[in-house]
Design brief:
Layout lengths: L6 H23 L1 H17 L10 H19 L3 H5 L23 H13 L2 H12 L4 H8 L3 H19 L17
Helix pairs in contact: 1-2, 1-3, 1-6, 2-3, 3-7, 5-8, 6-8, 7-8
Amino acid sequence: MGAFTTGEGFAAIVPMHAPAMLRVATALIGPADAEDAVQEAAMRAWQAWATLRNPDSARPWLLQITINVCRGWRRGLKGRQEAQLQPLPEDDEPSLALLAFDLGTSDHAGALDLRAAVNALPVDLRTAVALRFYAGLDATEIGEALSIPAGTVRSRLHRALLQLREQLAPSGPVRSVPLDTEARP
């Protein structure tokens, strides 16, 4: 098995996936606690490192541990409102919640609206959104991380995007727009 089963394997693989773990944690519990959650997830991963059979499955395995830590922390928060109303950092501080490539968070007000809308989703839909759009996983990888079929993941993403669109749409009639971004012939 070699270096994969040793601390060297852990030290080589986990840092590669830490940014995705941090994005998922930020999406699920907020920027204030995200780094602590990732550190807790890394500690749990270290403790269970010998149980990982395939190094190709390290990313979904690490993200699942991160999700489990975040779920536990959300249950332990003083209430749902505290999780949704995390203050944004000052403009001169780097922000993990405001991703430059995320068009929905181009300013603080948009970030608050999007964050509140994502946090209002049911846990199964919120988790799928976090893994897809914050960790960059595809439906197959999300399915592997959550132990569900890829079709179920696509279904959850579809329902989540419909709910987000409804919550974030300006008042008035909502026009139907395809959910996927691929060009159609």
